Amino acid sequence: MHCRLHHGHTYSHHTMCSASCSGSDTQTNIRLIDYHQVEKAWFASGNFPLLQSIHHQEYPLESGRTAFCIVPENEMSHMLALIVAVVAARAAHVSRRSTGGTQEQEILNELLRNYDMRVRPPPTNYSDPQGPVTVRVNIMIRMLSKIDVVNMVRDQKQLFVTVGRAVIGWFVQFQEYSMQLTFREQWIDSRLAYSQLGYHNPPKFLTVPHIKNNLWIPDTFFPTEKAAHRHLIDTDNMFLRIHPDGKVLYSSRISITSSCHMQLQLYPFDLQYCDFDLVSYAHTMKDIVYEWDYSAPVQLKPGVGSDLPNFQLQNITTNDDCTSHTNTELSAYSNPKIFPGSYACLRMKLILKRQFSYYLVQLYGPTTMIVIVSWVSFWIDMHSTAGRVALGVTTLLTMTTMQAAINAKLPPVSYVKVVDVWLGACQTFVFGALLEYAFVSYKDSSRKDEMAKSNATRKAQKRRDKMDIPASDAYQPPCTCHLYRDMRPSLRDRLRRYFTKPDYLPAKIDFYARFYVPLGFLAFNIVYWTSCFMMASKMYQI
């Protein structure tokens, strides 16, 4: 390396000079500093007594680099001044480099030097020194699956009702659903602003997931969460990004199973509103305020909710009116109106519409066919006991089995559902067909007994009358005529026999059942479907 020191003019006892170095990897520029005015220079440590009388001045170059020019007061220290100038210039250049990873390291070291993660950031609104930190939230739903209506869970939070001096507790029953989402939080921490640190061309942002444990992070939790985990394959699926103005973006990918309080009165015509809340665990509204992101509070990955077997994701709404009130003192349970802590809350509401076509094929179609099959018993001859009994018992058992299978897919609730009305009516019609045959068989047996008694009485009377006839009148000449009859009834005769009201009471009951039972089932369907759609429209405003 060859360095030359160029002397210049002298102004106010300070010599203007310049230095240039060749043979190095950089072209040194000029910095002329008055030693007596800059006490923090590295060569002012007192270890070089020869330099105590050396003057320095600075002159910025267009390249932005920095160098020191040491101007000696006498010729004897000229060589030493030149060496110090070169060393100082190179050290300053290295410490002020604006490219590469060294600058990010210096920025992070500078930001974390006096940073205290135990203290929340200054308020977002600088006009209010005691104001809260505003945390903006964005959620991207990547997958929605496993809407489990059967798995009843007991909420760990007991509800209490005060009746006199007695406290009665019970558990609320919920169903569950699972989803995978990207959860993003954004806030401003002015302590992390690096735009004013004086670095030339600082980075647009710093992605620093490895220092998450060294920064203040909002203590957000999900009250309806049953189980959750952050994805760790291949590495921890999260990142932390710091912007020059101190804006911090924290994002993580999590899978969560959340509870949902479902109302099943109109099952399967129901809409379910599943609330997904997020609340600060320890900071009240005086410290943290949550807000949804203005541009896109909730995002959906294409295809989410379209592959659910029983539900369709109809809509997602957001609001911030779910303020959580929590009391940390047990004595306050005696007065439910006391709420020492109010915690900011955001709520995402999932609106799930049950797919009726699934239940039309799996529920209403099969049960209707079973009811219709049970009506075949009305058209079978009343004396075919084995056939009618087998048909009635088979349809009844099939209906019972299907009802049990449908109820196994539903939670045991204390109220009546519209599907219970349908299944109960279908089972009633099937059981009614079996009872109808039992009644017809009973009437037929009773009529046979009466006819047998009547025939026995008539035969006895004939025997008595025959004993009273004179012998001369007992002879009857043989009949010489021939009677012929076609034993095969025509189609008209058969139809007339089926559709003509018979005089025999058991046959008359079968005749009426063939027409009035289907009409009764049709009337029930009209009332049932009309009532269901009217109740659904009134409850869900559709």
From TrEMBL:
Its main location: membrane. Residues 452-472 are annotated as: Disordered. GO terms for cellular component: plasma membrane. GO terms for molecular function: extracellular ligand-gated monoatomic ion channel activity; transmembrane signaling receptor activity. Residues 175-355 form the Neurotransmitter-gated ion-channel ligand-binding domain. Keywords: Cell membrane, Ion channel, Ion transport, Membrane, Signal, Transmembrane, Transmembrane helix, Transport. It comes from the Eukaryota. It is found in: Cell membrane; Membrane. Pfam families: Neur_chan_LBD, Neur_chan_memb. The chain crosses the membrane at residues 356-380, 386-406, 418-440, 515-536. It is a multi-pass membrane protein. Residues 363-459 form the Neurotransmitter-gated ion-channel transmembrane domain. Belongs to the ligand-gated ion channel (TC 1.A.9) family. PANTHER family: NEUROTRANSMITTER GATED ION CHANNEL. This is Cation transporter family protein. It comes from Ancylostoma ceylanicum. The gene is Acey_s0096.g2944.
